Amino acid sequence: MSAKILALDTSTENCSVALMINDQMFTRSEVAPRDHTKKILPMVDEVLKEAGISLHDLDALAFGRGPGSFTGVRIGIGIAQGLSFGAELPMIGISTLAAMAQACYRVNQSGQVVTAIDARMSEIYWAQYIRQDDGGWSALLMSDSQGECVIPPQELVDNVLTSEGLWVQAGTGWAAYHETLSHLPLNMQSSDILYPEAQDIAVLAQLEWNKGNTVNAEQASPTYLRDKVTWKKLPGRE
């Protein structure tokens, strides 16, 4: 059964909203690194008006749960929770890395995707995905049994799982650490997919809806991957 799903994402420099109703997709997307809070709700209003429905007509609200910018992820989940509370909608969190893999499939039917978002502090958010028969994505596990991780590029080169076939690159990490990541022992091809998009989050959320994988607004949670932030103390501070 196809659900009416509103999806939004502010986890990276890109800000996007999508409304999926059966085979129709209403979308808004803009790279606006500092204007997420100004852009996202007007985008929501626009897609709802274009489709001729209200929040109360929806079945679920999906959001990009991260990883990505700490501030961006918090903005996205906070706005999504507010909309969900107001309309009493269940929520579905989708990995931003998996959403980029889905974008590669949408654009060029790629079934093997390596995703890398620049995580700053000389690290990347990383996952290596293979598309499954049901349309979902499975992340290959690293040596520490993690599918998605935050990792220094050189450490990734030393520990990545070598796999056959062509792997399509997605994300901002490839440009940020091009020299180091070019040494990965994989047959790779670049793509134009830099950021997660709400329309791909909506597609993956439909799969989760079909499985009954929803949560209440108060249970919705982000995925940061990085447990702590390394920072230098200012002079004179303890």
Indicate the percent of residues in helices.
Answer: 25-40%
Query: Mean pLDDT, rounded to whole units?
Result: 93
Distance between the termini: 57 Å
What structural class do the secondary elements suggest?
A: alpha/beta
CATH superfamily label of the largest domain? ATPase, nucleotide binding domain
Query: What's the CATH topology name of the largest domain?
Result: Nucleotidyltransferase, domain 5
User: What is the element string, with H for helices and E for strands?
Assistant: EEEHEHEHEEEEHEHHEH
The tally of domains stands at: 2
| Share of β-strand residues | 25-35%
Taking all Cα atoms into account, the compactness measure Rg is: 18 Å
Number of helices: 7
Tell me the total number of β-strands.
11
Q: What's the CATH C level of the largest domain?
A: Alpha Beta
Shape: globular
